[in-house]
Amino acid sequence: MIILSETIILSELPRRRQKTIRYELLRFSDFVKHPELINHSKYSSIYIDDVNLFKENFDLFLKMLSANFFKRFSCHDYEGLKFIENELKNQANIQVGLVDDFQNKDRSYINIDEFEKTELVIPIAYSSWNVQSSNDIPIACYYSNLGHYSPFGIIGFSRISKEFLSKVNEIISEISNNWDSYTELDKLILISNYLQDRVQYVDENNLSEGKKGIYITDSNGIDVNFNVHNPEVTLLQRFGVCEGIANATTLLLNNPTININARSVFGSNHVWNVVEIDGKFYQVDNTWSITRNESQYPESLKAKDFTSDYLLLGSKKMAELGHHNAATILPQLSDDDYPREKINERQKVLSKQVRFHDYSQPVFKSYLKVNN
């Protein structure tokens, strides 16, 4: 169950503080109750919490636009965002974001091309589900921050192309041409195995931090910058950081072919996934499966053999591990881990068809920096 945090109302503040307050959450209904917020707000992203109320007070919305500070408006209701697009007479320099409903379903009702006066942004988990667009799809990579619904893009990857989605489908077919024969657990194991096999953890400027220290890579002239956050680089060039790896996980799992409900999660300066298996949501960290794998290539943040240590963990285990304090809105998560014996049993069965050891060599040569 998703719960919004309380909004601090302007009239409740001492007068001397009214011009400096920064709100944790602003809903459009707050502006209806307190129109003076337009002149005092320091927060540019607004959640439309009641579409009917919004329609009845569209003039107030226009006043907000004339203030030239409010740049992002989010809503759970696609038709609410279409209402903005249809009612605006002129182009507005704003983004309108569709908030994730955590469902895997056909999204052909979404037409990016119809948004000409505003820019529509949709959750990355929707992108493979028949969204209509003649160009790249503007996406939000890891949903919405706790305290406010603000599903907008990130540095390095805020749009996804049809060509890349086709490449994702090719990868899915490369892994297996008969996904219907696998259980949900099988599919997750196979996707994690694929990423552990191929991807090397490489951070910006070829300096990557691991448990043992700083790893320095030689990219041999290949650009290693903000692109490490891009799942396209993760999947096609086989290197990247947690953001690219987690969003690659979402794209590989969350599509009509594999149809696993997977979402990306941000928090603790890290990105990982929540994945629904057998009706419950667990947490998955394919980045740590690579960087904290007991079997790695020497002086490299690259797995050599498969590990399931960071697959389908419950909230209790994640709290013990640390570095996984989610700052994004999530569905109800399982407290307990998925039974490890079931994971081990399915991996043993799958190993008759798929290789889980002797992984691909690292993409880049690297060495561990020695501290003097």
Please give a structural write-up.
The protein has 12 helices and 14 strands. It is α/β, with parallel strands linked by helices and 372 residues long. The protein has a 6-stranded mixed β-sheet. The protein has a 3-stranded antiparallel β-sheet with strand order 8-9-14, with no helix packed on it. The longest helix has 15 residues. The protein is globular.
List keywords for this structure.
12 helices; 372 residues; 28% helix; alpha/beta
Strand content: 15-25%
Main sheet record: 6 strands, mixed
Uncertain residue segments: 1-23
Summed over residues and divided by their number, the pLDDT gives a mean of 89
Sequence-ordered SSE layout with sheet pairings:
Layout: H1 28-33, H2 37-40, E1 45-47, H3 51-56, H4 58-66, E2 72-75, H5 78-87, E3 95-98, E4 119-123, E5 137-140, E6 159-160, H6 162-175, H7 184-198, E7 200-201, E8 207-210, E9 213-218, H8 231-236, E10 239-240, H9 242-253, E11 262-267, E12 270-277, E13 280-284, H10 286-291, H11 315-321, H12 340-350, E14 365-368
Parallel strand pairs: 1-2, 2-3, 3-4, 4-5, 7-10
Antiparallel strand pairs: 5-6, 8-9, 9-14, 11-12, 12-13
Helix pairs in contact: 7-9, 7-12
